[in-house]
Design brief:
heterodimer; A: 113 residues; alpha+beta; 2 helices; 51% strand; elongated; B: 142 residues; mainly alpha; two-stranded antiparallel sheet; 4 strands; 7% strand
Chain lengths: 113, 142
């Protein structure tokens, strides 16, 4: 399973609508956008990369109290073996009324031949 | 009670002292070399995201990318040397830091373009290598 598939499954299991890159349909009061950040090889053996580390950012937008969903998401991500490298409240967007919270995650995947 | 006293060889101590003086001069150079690697990567990543995927024609003025720079190596409040890669200000009503933040994290209806995070991930290794190279040259290490 790829990181994006895994993240989609986790976020949907938390009851949140999710899309990758940009939320193209009409946005509900609470949703998540996944932005892939980078992929890099860290571990090598026999001059070949053995492990691929993928990073992504989850942007949680909520018009209400985002605290419970944020905690639930982080708990699910940690349980699934993700490294949560940053959690940051970006702010309240006064023009749209959305609270914006960013969660950066990373996970190692075995490089497939 | 038995007592052991170990004394360092004088030659070794003088070598360490000499290296200490050389280190004081080498560390700022190494930090600047590492900072330049990060700066180049950040400029490249920032230019790649500015104006990309906009619904309307981009009105970018180039001021944000032009304001990126590297500070000289200075002592911080804890007494450690560091360099900073960041934006100079003086843009007017809107700060460069705020614009960079909107690009980095996005908004409702505006996708995130994480150029800072990508810079951090991709420049870590080359930055360390550049600093190691400068230290080896400055300290005459193999």
């Amino acid at each position: 399973m790829s990181m994006l598939e895994e993240l989609n499954t986790i976020i949907e299991s938390a009851g949140l609508p999710v899309e990758t890159g940009v939320f193209s349909s009409t946005a509900p009061d609470e949703y998540v956008v996944i932005t892939p950040i980078s992929e890099h090889f860290e571990l090598f053996s026999d001059n070949a990369p053995g492990m691929n580390i993928e990073e992504a950012r989850l942007s949680l937008f909520s018009k209400g109290n985002y605290g419970a969903k944020k905690r639930q998401l982080v708990r699910l991500l940690l349980t699934a073996g993700f490294l949560v490298s940053e959690r940051r409240y970006i702010g309240l967007e006064e023009d749209t009324g959305y609270h914006h919270f960013a969660i950066d995650v990373a996970k190692e995947y075995l490089e497939e031949e | 009670m038995a007592k052991v006293k170990i004394e360092m060889p004088d030659e070794f101590i003088s070598q360490l002292a000499g290296m200490g003086n050389a280190l004081d001069a080498a560390i700022p150079k190494a930090l600047v070399a590492g900072g330049k690697v990060v700066l180049d990567k950040m400029v490249s990543n920032l230019r790649a995201v500015i104006g990309s995927g906009t619904k309307l024609k981009s009105r970018s003025t180039g001021k944000l990318a032009a304001s990126l720079g590297l500070s000289p190596a200075k002592l911080d409040r804890d007494g450690n040397l560091d360099v900073k890669v960041g934006f100079s200000e003086g843009r007017g009503n809107v700060s460069n830091a705020m614009l960079a933040n909107v690009l980095e994290y996005g908004k409702h209806g505006q996708p995130s373009r994480p150029f800072l995070k990508r810079t951090k991930s991709s420049s870590r290794k080359p930055c360390i290598e550049a600093m190691q190279q400068v230290l080896k040259e400055e300290l005459d290490l193999p």
